[in-house]
Amino acid sequence: MTSHQPVAQLGVGKLPVRYPLLALCFFACLICYLDRISISVAVIAMQEQFGWSETTKGLVLSSFFIGYMLCQVPSGWLANRLGGKIMLSVAVIWWSAFTFLTPLAAAISLPVLLATRVLMGVGEAGMFPSVFNLFSRWTPLHQRSRFVALVLSGAPVGNVIGLAVSGWLATQFGWQAIFYVFGLLGVLWAIAWIPSSYNDPRQHPRISREELELLDRDRPSDATPGAVPWRRLLTQPAVWALMVNGFCSAWTLYVLLAWLPSYFNKIYGMNMLKAGFYSAAPWITLFILVNAGGWIADAMTRRHISTTSVRKTMQASGLIGSALFLMVARQMTTPETALAAICLALGFVGLTWSGYGINSLDIAPRYADVLSGMTFTAANIPGIIAVMVTGWMLDLTGSYDAPFLLGASISVFGAIVYLIWGSGEPLVD
Asked: Which of 129, 135, 198, 313 lies 20 to 30 Å from 353, alpha-carbon distance?
């Protein structure tokens, strides 16, 4: 690449070094959500076996998020100090081990099961801070949205596979088989990741001069770890808008993640296998719109639309669209129409991954791992509150109308906050 050649003309096909690394991050994200979603199907059989109420089931479903939420910021700090490769290796092996141990914990007692789910959440807390640490080194600005979207779209793919396969495994071999099979996948991933990955692709022996130049153009000014400017971060309105939107964007996602199989089982009388397959469809829609959103956001960037405008457009469109279709879902009376509305409600959330989801790389590229940890801490509060509140509302009303209305209201609130205070401009060097 000559000095006068625009960066945008360097084709994606000429960037081979990052591809296997990004692919392995995609599969880590897939396994992360595969392990997380598995209990949403298994809990139907577990509830019957152990005689749990809806409130107790909500507690089991939400306990994971206690460890997940509390360890986001520490994981971000560790990723900043140790690098994303080491953190991601430890995280995947840790959460896979506790996935495998879940059936044993359930057989012992409810408190032991809850503790096991909390510890699994501790491991999964390292997922996103680790990959954001790597994104800051691996992705040039004009390709960042699509690459981040591609890796993070491992989440809905994991959910689709988990929901579809979990029902079959439970039917054929018992619900315990779900955790044994999925837990082993993390070990297989680690065998591929540990010997082949690089914390920084610049260390790769086959990196080309063209790719090195492209990556260096958008590299943070100083990639070495340093003291995290906590005061500077926490006094920026855009940081708080980002965290509020992490919370609001995740509310609907976690309600559907935890309760969708139970929704189709209770409202439309589907068995566990059919409920799992129906629950998988919205995650396919999410996968499509996550990646479409990444391409749209990068196309806007290439047209020299400001990063702030790009992020606000994607975030507001995603949250308001999701709220609209949650309200539509409340009026549906057949499983097919309800499924269509829920597919769109969840799909629109995918656009926010090119809004708030990538925003930490815009406003604090050197500390994107730490800021993503802060954001995902806020984003996982709904994993506890929303999941438990939904169970309480179901016990109280016997209907999903109230949870859907609450989710729509929270989405609209998040859009308003981000439109006023959100930013895409660097705030911290």
From this structure: 198
